[in-house]
Amino acid sequence: MSSPDHHPHHHPHDRPTDRADQQPAGQPADRPERTRTEVDTGVLPGRAAALLGEGFRLALAAAHHDPDALRVVYLFTQAGTDRRAELHVRLDPADPALPSLARISFPAGRFEREMHDLYGIVPHNHPLPRRLVRHHHWPRGWYPMRNDAGPPPQFGDPEGPYPFVQVQGPGVYEIAVGPVHAGMIEPGHFRFSVVGETILKLKARLWFVHKGIEKLFQGRPPADALPLAERVSGDTTVGHTLAFCLAVEDATGVQVAPGAQRARAILLELERLYNHVTDLGALCNDAGHSILNAQFGRVREQLLRLNAHVTGHRLLRGGVRLGGATLRAIPDPQKLRSIGTDIAELVELALGHTVVADRFTGTAPLSTQAARDLGALGYVARASGLDTDARRDHPFTDLRPALTIPTADTGDVLARFHIRAREITTSIAIINDLTYGRNPGLATYWPPLAPPAAPPDGPLSGAGIVEGWRGTIVHRVELAPDGTLTRTKIVDPSFFNWPAVPVALKGAIVPDFPLVNKSFNLSYAGNDL
Fold first, then answer.
1. What's the distance, Cα to Cα, between the start and end of the chain in Å?
2. Were 240 and a residue from 115, 232, 302, 391 both cysteine, which residue would form a disulfide, CB within 3.0 to 4.6 Å?
3. 15 bridge partner residues
4. DSSP state of 190
């Protein structure tokens, strides 16, 4: 193990606890580099800036309430090398404060606001210190994720209305939409400032369905927490369950057999397929082409029935297990090719219709620079020219040569439609490649052993990174000596992508909002944890 004095990020004021070359029990020798460093608040911004400058991205920031202190963990990841660097900052529970990283990382600013609302941690010099999760009826001074939070006090109205920024000027008026919407949609409030039909500014207010799901993980054995992971966001069963399992396996050093990892990849692509097909139809519907939506819905039903055939559940629940996966049946390659041909014909019909093509083209573009600054992920990022995909950048199994990663440079609704269509073709190729010569059955084990002893520099922890159908999902877990979960932090790609919607809509017209919103199709449940 290299000396901390020779570590490239060492700072004389840090408390070095790097474990870059130390492998937990059972981990393969070629495990990508993991580092963990305790830093003081004074050097935190410099260390974070250095990692960002080296091409790392901030994948996660999580607060913890330890017995003797509050602690914040920043997880940085680097594409390609799969290097992961953690910065741990311990805070005084009586005065928990740290310097804000919002000026060097937009996502960091949102994580900080979340931590302030749920843990009472104050980010000093934050450029936008407004509440994020807290709603006006939450009791002031009550931080529900802290161990000393106790039962909820009486709810009232201590905070008052949310301080929306008002745009003023000749002809400017506001349109308030939600949080209760017509139809089956989760709650979100959208405040438009408009001149005529042109949107000057949009503010999205979420967290109306905050469930405290991360708190529900605490104290459970990992196997008992699987149903929670499957339900973080109902349309992302495989993505969130797999990220959780990878995190637990990373923490405990459990090696998963290559065949089981390939089975997991099959399930992940099946989930991508039915969701992308659903979105293609919904986008056509929002452009007024309900017949095409019905046809895509027909294909979606075929895929849902295939899911039930493979796992016993239309949403693929029960397929991913700790240590592996279970496939009751193998997807029929010929049927998948037929479905792919069907989808390609529907895509051609959609883009060959002048009304649909005109509505999609040039609508709500998100520039490459804006996508990069916001930390956009998934098809949103790829439609804006960012070549990012955790299947390649943080692989849990090798998908070559079937894996191709399409990108576009216009960043508009048309690009987001195109990326989905092209990813469908790739997903079918991956599934057919992975199922060649495969038999159904159980490909899993979870040894009934206590986890290895925690390292001397902190609790046993691990992170799982998965390219869900919306984008990169990250779970980070910490385990107690008895193997139960003490902390589970979940990051759905929607947390990163929601701020991109108002940016893309600036200058669009109000009637295009449903179409644009669907082109992003972000999760409320995955965001409102």
1. 38
2. 232
3. 38
4. E
